[in-house]
Amino acid sequence: MANKIRLATTSLAGCFGCHMSLLDIDERILELAELVEFNRTPITDIKHCGDCDVGLIEGGVCNSENVHVLREFRGNCKILVAVGACAINGGLPAMRNFIPLGECLKEAYIDAIGVENAQIPSDPELPLLLENVHPIHELVKVDYFLPGCPPCADVFWKFLTDLIGGREPSLPYELIHYD
């Protein structure tokens, strides 16, 4: 495994759809396994990222835990790749940026239909919410961006095989989708 590129992934505030899209490379995952050593990924279930060559990260930054995970992940990755709309621009989680945080919490935990024993959670185990959801490049340096919601499996395959092959990753227009 000494010659293999170490690949890690993680997810912040999002739907995990980008990870599902990566797994949609289907049988090509076996070809990828010949070229990379999987570190923290859904395939390995490793909880903390060790030093790696390439880190793929999806999701926006919405709470203190996301900030911690993002900074730790960036510190362990030689190359960091923002994957999907949430990582690149905040995506759907950033829709709350247009409403004050207190109003969002009140709507979800006090005024929502079916809520019983209404109170806003304040358990010390819960990470503190940030006032706004942020794209990851606002907190750390990002080396590459894979757009889409989510990027399709072929985008992952093309990007990773270019990078592993020593080529500057180039995504043809027909691979980029925003649906």
The biggest sheet amounts to: 5 strands, parallel
User: Strands of the largest sheet, in order across it?
Assistant: 2-1-3-5-7
Order of helices and strands: EHHEEEHEHHEEH
| Strand tally | 7
Question: Which percent range describes the beta-strand content?
Answer: 15-25%
- CATH topology, by name, is Rossmann fold
The gyration radius over C-alpha positions equals 18 Å
**Overall mean pLDDT:** 91
Low-confidence stretches: none
Helix-residue proportion: 25-40%
Number of domains: 1
Count of separate DSSP helical elements: 6
Q: Structural class, from secondary structure content? A: alpha/beta
Q: CATH class, anyone?
A: Alpha Beta
Ends distance: 37 Å
Shape: elongated
CATH superfamily: NADH:ubiquinone oxidoreductase-like, 20kDa subunit
Please describe the topology of this protein.
Layout: E1 5-11, H1 17-23, H2 28-35, E2 36-38, E3 52-58, E4 61-63, H3 64-76, E5 77-83, H4 84-89, H5 101-109, E6 129-134, E7 144-146, H6 153-164
Parallel strand pairs: 1-2, 1-3, 3-5, 5-7
Antiparallel strand pairs: 4-6
